[in-house]
């Protein structure tokens, strides 16, 4: 169940009702004892009497520890349901867009196909960033008319980004580049070389109290937090107000 990027007010009515109806509230954590960002977002809606179930999702590159964690999470959720408990699994952002719970969904289908489930979508960070920028006087519609929208992780190298920008410009595609973080110094240089800094939107920790929204030109060329993204529009449709 998606709970949005950070602001508890962006949780949908469906998500709020699902939380309130649950006996068990499950959520991912990066390490044992950690709070979990999804749980922090949903905290205003979680009652004291509800049992919390943190599920470990290690932030590692190796595949096997991640697979074992997904299988363990699916088994824990299926066991709760089999015991007659109503369970929700919280997920930051949207539940189907680069989401930890997507892997649990696949694992449940593979290993526990009889377990009933319902997927509730949430607001993505890209959509929330565009809306927040527009609310602050920086009009940023994600896509207009025949424009395409590509949401993807930031490329790993300058060469890959250059190729992506060229393809996007040729196809009138707006880019939403996620997981910007440590790549920002060379991404900024690439945008500057193409004259795109002023019209690109930098967003950091969208929906949280320390949220940052700014033209990319206003952000220093230093490493940024993991939860940073970039919206890049290289052209506008011919027909506009």
Question: What does the model show?
Answer:
This protein is α/β, with parallel strands linked by helices. 34% of the residues lie in helices and 17% in strands. The strands form two sheets. It has a five-stranded mixed β-sheet, with helices on both faces. It has a three-stranded parallel β-sheet with strand order 2-1-3. Helix 2 links the parallel strand 1 and strand 2 (51-56). Helix 3 (63-82) packs across helix 4. The radius of gyration is 19 Å and the shape is elongated.
Descriptive key words:
alpha/beta; 241 residues; three-stranded parallel beta sheet
The string of secondary-structure elements, in order, is HEHEHEHHEHEHEEE
Principal-axis shape equals elongated
The largest sheet is:
5 strands, mixed
Q: Which percent band covers the strand fraction? A: 15-25%
Strand arrangement, largest sheet? Answer: 4-5-8-6-7
Give the number of helices: 7
As residue ranges, the low-confidence spans are none
Percent range of helical residues: 25-40%
Gyration radius over CA: 19 Å
Overall SS class:
alpha/beta
SS elements, strand count:
8
Task: Compute the separation of the termini in Å.
Answer: 38 Å
Mean pLDDT: 95
